[in-house]
Amino acid sequence: MTAADVRQPQGPASTPTPPIRRRGPSPMRRRENAAAYILITPFVVVFALFIVVPLVFSGYLSLFRDQLVGGTTFVAFDNYTRALTDSSFLTGVGRMAVFLVVQVPIMLGLALAFALLLDAGVLYLQRFIRLGIFIPYAVPSVIAALMWGYLYGPDFGPAAQIAKNLGISAPPFLSQHWMLGSIMNIVSWEFIGYNMIILYAALRSIPSELFDAAAVDGAGRVRTAWSIKIPAIRPAIILTAIFSVIGSFQLFNEPNLLRTIAPNVIGIDYTPNMYAYNLAFINRDSNYAAAIAFILGIVIMVASYSVQLSTQRKERAGR
Amino acid sequence: MTTHSAADGSVLTDSLLDRTPPRQRTRKGRAYSADKPRRSKVLTVVMFAVLLYFLIPLWWLLVASTKSNANLFSTFGLWFSSTNSLWVNIQTVFTSDNGVYLLWLRNSLVYSVVSAVGSAFLATMAGYAFAKYRFPGGNAIFSGILGAIMIPMTALTIPTYLLFANAGLTNTPWAVILPSLASPFGVYLMRVYAADSVDETLIEAARVDGAGELRIFFRVALRLLTPGMVTVLLFALVSTWNNYFLPLIMLNSPELYPLTVGLAQWQATAAGGSGSRALFSSVITGSFLSIIPLVIAFLFLQRYWQSGLASGAVKG
Amino acid sequence: MSRTTITWRRKAMGLTAGMAVAALALTACSGGSSGAKATGSAAAVSQADIDKAMKTPTKLTFWTWVPDIQNEVKLFEAAYPAITVDVVNVGQGADHYKKMRSALQAGKGAPDVAQIEFQHVQSFALGDNLLDLTPYIPATTGADYVPWVWKQVRSTDGSKIWSIPQDSGPMGQLYRDDILKAHNIAVPTTWDQFATAAKTLHAADPNVYLTNMPGNDMGQFTAMLWQAGARPFGWNGAKEVTINVASKEATKVAQYWQDLIKAGDVSVDPDFTDTWYQGLANGKYADWAPTAAWAPVFLQGTAANTSGLWRAANMPQWDASGSPVSANWGGSSDAVMKSTQNPIAAAQLALWINHDPASTLMLANKQFLFPTTNATLTNSEFSDLAPAFYGGQKVNQVFADISKTVPEDFSWLPFMDYAYSAGQESVGKAIADKGDVVGALKTWQDALVSYAKQQGFTVK
Does domain C170-327+409-459 have CATH number 3.40.190.10? Predict the structure, then answer.
């Protein structure tokens, strides 16, 4: 599966997992298997109960239709075909695709730039800077959306107040045209630090031998970063990219909370996840909501997989 | 990587337990970091400008929590007003609705600590097993676990609610804690981390000593896995602390809410018809107070999670 | 089934008091098991049975978002010491309904008694979630309530009583006396005058609007349809619904506001947001029109700095010659869930707190819910209040009079959650975007019809 493949384009820094004791005698082997099963059992039980069972149940639900009058009928894949022609759902997916294509590269680009700067050790007060950028990750998205909602406020937000004093008008952050960008900003604010820390940690663990060669070459800092560091942490970059893809398509909290202050800009179908939620609780159509959630899961898998494929192709082309 | 050539396995094991994982030492000694780079004032200034972006919203939150409801809208957002209402606001936060805020705080702590410790431990056991044993079905199970990372939460939350309701678990702390125990990402991290940080020779040596497999895990591997485990624990802590959707659906009684749901509900009481209350300053002060514990946890555990990440958890 | 119910039933059976008791036992039993169909016409529960039930130790759960309703519940508990009530606020409005529907769908965890706004009563009745209160309350109860209110809580054919009215929101306007006077504008009594006043005022002071028309409040918009004579919704209690949101009358309302909005004479801020609260407090809106009877007290809390400047008046009229017509915005009731194991006690709770004179007066004066009983509306302790915020005007009296002018024949769809949500996406959005509100009515109509068909209804 996707994330497993992340590990396969092994950077030079990775150590292959050594296969264990192939030559062991059979009783030994059996004991190891038993130990392995005992060790994974608690997780697998929890995983089965709280992920697999609900998922299967949800899949089962998605094959039915439950009408307010008329009761429940088996409709096979009707809910799925309906979703594929549902403009609310498709528009939401499209909006998230735009979000992904714009926000994720900006967020990861900045995170990588900051991580490289920190790793290069060219800054004063490095620890303070690192922590300051990371701190927003500790703020729940509910609170982040609430704060930014005030900051964006067209009448009382600081931006509007400053603009008013300068005699200009502040950007209408909460308007139709700006909203997606405003949400991108909140998400970036929350997660640049998180991604930066992951990439920074990966940079710190690049083995020194790699740099010796570069030093002999007399390569500059920027070139070292470009041709040695970035390729060396490629797996970590792909990991952050995939998590960002998943996160983007699942966007819910931020738009859902901004909806309270901009109810006519953010509709109930603004993101596919919000749409599924509202289908279940407002339209009282949880069967259709389950189908929507399933299709969304497939979209996410395809998107994550193509992120990987494209980076792998690049890697191959680079060789 | 340093090689361990001591003949006596148990001595080796014991001596290693008090050491930092080998990978960290290579990092310290690397030539690149040693040749002190020249620091740049210009870049530092640029980064401080960047830092402003990250800190201004928090600054706003601090400033806003010192203001009364009226001043919140009538004074400049990024600077204090003439009267300081912080103390009054804090008192309001802690006494509103019979002091329910304290319960929310306690709930958030309990839910996130129990979930984080539980899920980190489960993930560590499973990750170690996937990394160090090759057993029938292992790869298939691991692939299944990884695929689960991509499932959108709405696909799970509603069916989970229905199942939990039938089991009588909704509106109990378990409804929030149990689903949070399954962290597929944690298993992935711990598998990578275990593959790297628990040396094969060490396990061999322990086996030669006659230790059982589980004993090896609990007595030898676990301590080596600690930095990785703390990393997973922190991620789980943050995700449960910040979780809004699951408790929103699962819980009905305000005395069971975590901070996120409680504060959002306070915020929502301002936006309704009859019986509305404008609680803006309480929501803001409550939000400000609520992020303090997590920030402290981060500062306090910084050493662990950074080494956990750096020691290979994310480098694949 | 709880222990108390079983013992109570056994005792009742032991008395062998004839058919009535047996029928009652059946009702109690079917009430206990969720999903069971109601027995046809339930015989009235005798006072003796009620007395017995009210002396049996019972614990009830009551979901409501009325702040401090604990006060009235305490009065109830004092009157019936055997009953303890657990008051739970699971959220306001939409959140509350989501939780109720989840719990009802799951078949566990639902409350005994729950607050339900008028427009949602039928949707819970459709789900067969509500207990018909007819056998549990005196047959004369209806006469104690304002007629149009009592109609809101009954089944379409009037045969069943789904809930007990708690508060209502007859509509009028609250205006800033000082601002209108400063601009020599008379309080508009017709919508024509209102439009002219809006134009004059905004031209005189570009920072001030006569009123704000939110795009996120379908409750308010629907109430305006109500006043204009539109009857957009209906349900026959079975499979047939009436959907007519783009009628002549509705179009008149939409066109009226569209013109004002396009001319820029009224603002379109979403209501109950911080921007809107500040608009009320700082004089951006000179008139909150139309608003409802719960607004006077709400405004005192929100715009305390403007005390003494506001006054109340009737809603502007479409037809200047006829007798005044108002409508209702907001208002709720307390219903008993069919799944309750203590139907008698639950029904008494719902009735008592909304019927007992002391409790209803307290609801009106302490919880600021606009009354639904005739007795409280005419009680001088309520109607003679003359708050300084309104310059000593008897605002309650103003709205009590308005309450008599609300047309009775307005009904709802059994899926108002969706209807409002779809309305906000079409009509609301057109208002907020200053766009084609009239055209949006058609979009709303189409969405409702296709949803109704999807859900198995036939549309009339």
Answer: yes
